[in-house]
Amino acid sequence: MSSESRQIEQTAAALLARRDAGEWSNRDESALQAWLAKSPAHRVAFLRMEAAWKETARLKTLAAGSTHARVPPRGEWARSPYFATPIGHAPAVARRSAPRSRARRWPTVAAMAASLLVVAGIAGGLLWWRNAGHVEYGSWQTAVGGRQVVHLTDGSTATLASDSDLHAAFARHERNLDLVRGEAFFEVAHDRKRPFVVHANGYRVIAVGTRFDVRRSDDGVRVVVMRGVVRLQSSRDSAASTTDLPAGSIALVNHDNLVVRHVPLAEVAQYLSWRDGYVVFHDTPLADAIQEFNRYNNHKITIADPALDELRVGGNFRLDNSAAFVRLMQEVFPVRAEERGDTVLLSRRNIRAHGPD
Amino acid sequence: MAYAPWMGEPLDTWFTREVLTHERALMRFLHRNWRDHDEVEDLRQEIYVRVYEAASRRFPDSPKSFLFTTARNLLADRVRRQRIVSITAMGDVEQLHVLKDELEPERWCSDREALMHLAWALDRLPDRCREVFWLRRVEDLPHKEIARRLGISVKTVEKHIAKGLRLMTNDLHMDRKPKIAPAPATRARELAREPS
Fold this sequence. Notes:
The complex is a heterodimer.
Chain A: H1 3-20, H2 26-38, H3 40-55, H4 81-84, H5 94-97, H6 109-124, E1 128-130, E2 136-141, E3 148-151, E4 157-160, E5 165-170, E6 175-181, E7 183-187, E8 196-200, E9 203-207, E10 211-216, E11 220-227, E12 229-234, E13 242-246, E14 249-254, E15 257-262, H7 265-271, E16 278-285, H8 286-296, E17 300-303, E18 312-318, H9 322-332, E19 335-340, E20 343-348
Parallel strand pairs in A: 6-8, 17-20
Antiparallel strand pairs in A: 1-2, 2-5, 3-4, 4-7, 5-6, 7-10, 8-9, 9-12, 10-11, 11-14, 12-13, 14-15, 16-18, 19-20
Chain B: H1 5-8, H2 10-19, H3 23-33, H4 40-57, H5 63-81, H6 87-94, H7 100-103, H8 111-123, H9 127-138, H10 143-150, H11 154-172, H12 187-193
Helix pairs in contact in B: 3-4, 4-5, 5-6, 6-12, 8-11, 9-11, 10-11
């Protein structure tokens, strides 16, 4: 590596470390901006390190079972609970809601499964009980902005999106789930003898072993299939209206009208990005984008001018940061945002100031 | 104040999201196609600058193929500049192949894999640096508290963090088992070096 590139990397890293130390003044900020503006080489080096710095925030997961007393020796992280879980049961979301580490040793692998259930439970009220007829019941709710991974007793997992309500009743020959509100993603443990049935808005979504997402809307259901095949049925007349949806299907059904789109799996993944806390827009009408944010935030966004509905939005956004989204909208669109109590009102901004068009 | 440069800079966000995420594939490509591995980081830096500057005029439709086209052109330029390039060598450069897996979307990397890679990179840091980085990024302690615990100055903490970040940034974009043997495409460069 040339000394020049090395020098740039060192300066970028020093600036980020300095900023991380806190007490970052306006003067520090303008010094940074000046350095960045000096050369695109500075800027790309900085962006690169900044992205890596953000990535290292994931390391916090390792604290989940560590003792505060010491920095563990190299390689010991391999014994962290996070890595001890079998593949397919990684608590992808639980890590965000994990309580701050307490002074205890990393537990043994055996103790693991239990602690994960506790972690998931704390997030939103885990409730399992068993009645005399060997039917297991459970129910889970998430608040607006919440997200929860539920490990079901059959080995399946359900990930609840914001503002959702899911009930489960598992009998010996059937696994029934009722999506009362919102959206959930299911990773179904294979069990041919016990179909896995999600009930939502008068429809049944039936899986044997697969991964899929079910979302309720006001009058219908959307099903996204990531792996395997699921069967979609109307609860009213199951014989007449049954459709099998292979992986890559996006099905929308309401009033017994069914629309199915088949998309590449990469695109399917974008419908499921909420599980990681962000949303992907591609040429999405602003109105739809805002509806998506509003599902996740109590601070609602409203469009005051219908002319704005058709503006198209693209990009990845953090679902819990609608303020950043609104700021960005103002930067790139002729849009003005105004705080009105609990809502943000978006209206058209006069752009004549920018010169003749 | 919460600092978020991308809010005012759609370009920076775009660059971070659409270009930097392909660094591992890019590094693989460069290592395979360029013999002098010491130069690879400089090449990467120059490619980034070119992509960033081009995107400041117009966002490329397909960031990933634009990145690799830029990379290929840069390598070709470098070979041309040697001035002693034989026709065969040029032919090879034009065909510097980008492997199919490099043009496909990044394989989905689970949270678990990403964390494993991070932990691996963390373990590669020198002792003190690793300790400081752990306390900051895992335990989330403020610099002052880290300084107190380790009996070092706050300035030293900052230095360790800067160093750790620099080392980790490079390791994050490296395959855990780096491939050492360069592939045949490196021939272009070797030929270019031969006196005509």
